[in-house]
Design goal:
Arp2/3 complex 21 kDa subunit ARPC3; 256 residues; globular; two-stranded antiparallel ribbon; mainly alpha
């Protein structure tokens, strides 16, 4: 993003660092790694607190909290997306999303090819490998669609809010963008992947969707102090951010 000239009242108030730094590739690697791991662990259906959480609302019945194996890791992808979008901007996050998309496609292709390679006589884990790493087209489509829609919306909303508020109200950007992105991601993913995960009732679908959205949003809130710390540290450590901050009218306030 081109830094606005001083005195330009119509210029965006947002400041962003250049991606040509030693920190940006590390953040991209972490983001892609989290997405790749989540794409595998998310194939396992999980139910929590089934012994004591029983809800009967007529057509909607909930026996525990239905989620998947990525519930404890996947929210970190949105935290990393927030950090990248806040410090480096929408274009940088767009590159990161495309990088993650490419790696997920490559991983799925590699898993598929490995599964169909001739099995050695001494290897006894073929069926288990197929079950864990097998590429289910429906699940792959759900993961990729939810990922692209959710991450793009998350970054877009955060950057647009920053262009209006400058450095102020970081908490509102983090929370607002996550709510929009996670909601879209959860709806898209669950709508496509539900039957592939074995979810066959309306109650389980609502349960799975609500639990996923609420959990991811709560994680964002709980670790927001850590997000604040990382964002603040990066802004101070990136010389190009400080330069952009000095050039952007109204931005040099309330820097975390």
């Amino acid at each position: 993003m081109t830094a606005p000239t001083p005195g330009d009242t119509h210029a965006p108030r947002a400041a962003f660092a250049s991606i040509g730094s030693r920190y940006f590739p590390i953040l991209v690697a972490l983001f892609v790694g989290v997405m790749l791991i989540s794409n595998i662990t998310g194939t396992k259906g999980v139910i929590l607190f089934s012994d004591w959480l029983q809800v009967d609302l007529g057509p909607i019945q909930m026996d525990g909290l239905v989620t998947d194996g990525a519930f404890f890791l996947f929210p970190l992808a949105y935290v990393l997306g927030d950090v990248i979008s806040e410090v480096y901007g929408f274009r940088a996050m767009r590159r990161t999303i495309f990088a993650g998309f490419a790696v997920l496609i490559l991983a799925s292709l590699c898993f598929w090819l490995t599964i169909h390679l001739p099995v050695a006589e001494f290897y006894e884990g073929q069926q288990a490998f197929e079950t864990v790493a097998g590429v289910v087209p429906q699940f792959l489509l759900a993961g990729l669609a939810g990922y692209v829609v959710g991450e793009f919306l998350n970054s877009f909303v955060l950057v647009k809010m920053k262009e209006r508020a400058g450095e102020r109200h970081l908490w509102a950007r983090l929370l607002g963008s996550t709510i929009v992105g996670e909601f879209a991601d959860t709806i898209v993913f669950c709508s496509i992947a539900a039957t592939a995960l074995g979810i066959s009732t309306w109650g389980d679908f609502v349960n799975y969707t609500i639990v996923g959205f609420v959990w991811k949003t709560l994680v964002e809130i709980v670790i927001m102090p850590l997000t604040y710390f990382v964002v603040g540290w990066l802004k101070r450590a990136e010389p190009t951010y400080q330069q952009a901050l000095e050039s952007a009218p109204g931005s040099a306030t309330d820097v975390p």
